[in-house]
Protein: Peptidase A1 domain-containing protein
Organism: Tagetes erecta
Amino acid sequence: MNTLTILFTLFITISISFTKASQHDAGGFSVDLIHRDSPLSPLYNPTQSRTNCLQNAFLRSKSRAFRISKTLGFASKLDADIFGVPGEYIMKIQIGTPPVEVFGIADTGSDLTWAQCEPCKNCYKQVGPPILVPASSSTYQTQSCQSKACDALATDQLPCDSQGICQYKMSYGDKSYSIGDLAMETFWFGPTPLKNVVFGCGHENNDTFNENVSGIIGLGGGPLSIINQLNSLVRGKFSYCLIPQINDSSNQTSKIHFGDLVNILGPKVVSTPLVKKYPWTYYYVTLENVLIGKNSLSYKQSFLKNVVDEGNIIVDSGTTLTLLPREFYNEFTSSLTKGIGGETMADPEGILELCYKDLNLNGVPSVTFQFTGANIELAPVNMFLEVQKGVSCLTIVPSDDLAILGNLLQRNMMVGFDLVSQKVFFKPTDCSMH
């Protein structure tokens, strides 16, 4: 039995053991996904212009891509010394008995959920929701170093403390991290209480995280993610529908659905297989071709190879921009600019690579990402974003070592994940109606 097979067997065993701990009938629930720049967000800054918000989101994309590159073992050349906060959407839940409100960054690129806890030995200042106090909750249980939950931490596990409590460390890029006790608690998603959810009670959390958030809500594919821990309730299913770009007067939120409320049906639904790769956290799919007008480009990580690698792109809601390998990106933009015509210009902020003055979106040729079994036509309004008045830039950027389908290209698209059937579903949708 090879190493990957052993790891996958352990993954299944641990996931099943967690689901037995939560005694609930089959069902589902929904939670608001609040964009960090929405007026409803605890991170909202009314003094920032739309241009500033976009620039910061683009920089966070680069920082996040660097973190994922490091996790995957790439020697990334991306500049990561930018932002530590790893996502773009906020979820409001409650933890403990009695329940305490928590604002967490919803992250499909993380597994373990964690929040700041007292006593805080070295924590960032938190002025929004209160810091959790484990001693005040009747359902708080630390996990020993012999527990299955502790085993599931793998490389994120630290040596036991003097009382035999399992210790974790989650790192996000070069500077941001959370260290603390691994524990079980009751989580509340709206009125729905879910018992025995494993999470990190963070006692040391550095100050690159925003003072208005409590921590991270892990929605990845690993055994400690919310999705797999609640498998008996949600059956490995969740979906989200991201509304278009937030404006300062909008009070709308995107939605994330779990379990039986995930219902992606209809003639326009397409699906592509999830590819299981280590680390299990990320949602890998296979991009085979990109169609620009009538010009088909075979998607290969390197043009020295004649085959398309399986699981060659990650579907990620926490990255704003879409990243493609440099060689393919150059071919893609060459074909795209020929189809658009006119003169390109430099991004005034020097972040994005392909920009136009007064771009007519009706003149952008159709672009279709052809995944295994699923063709997705990209909306021009998501591909090109007006970063300044009269200046529109392509929201797809080059990368040296990985590919990510970012959230701008997923807007107004119902995106569903079924970790049992190992598929991702896509359906064009007016997300403002959901």
Summary: The chain has two domains: 3-56+83-257, 259-433.
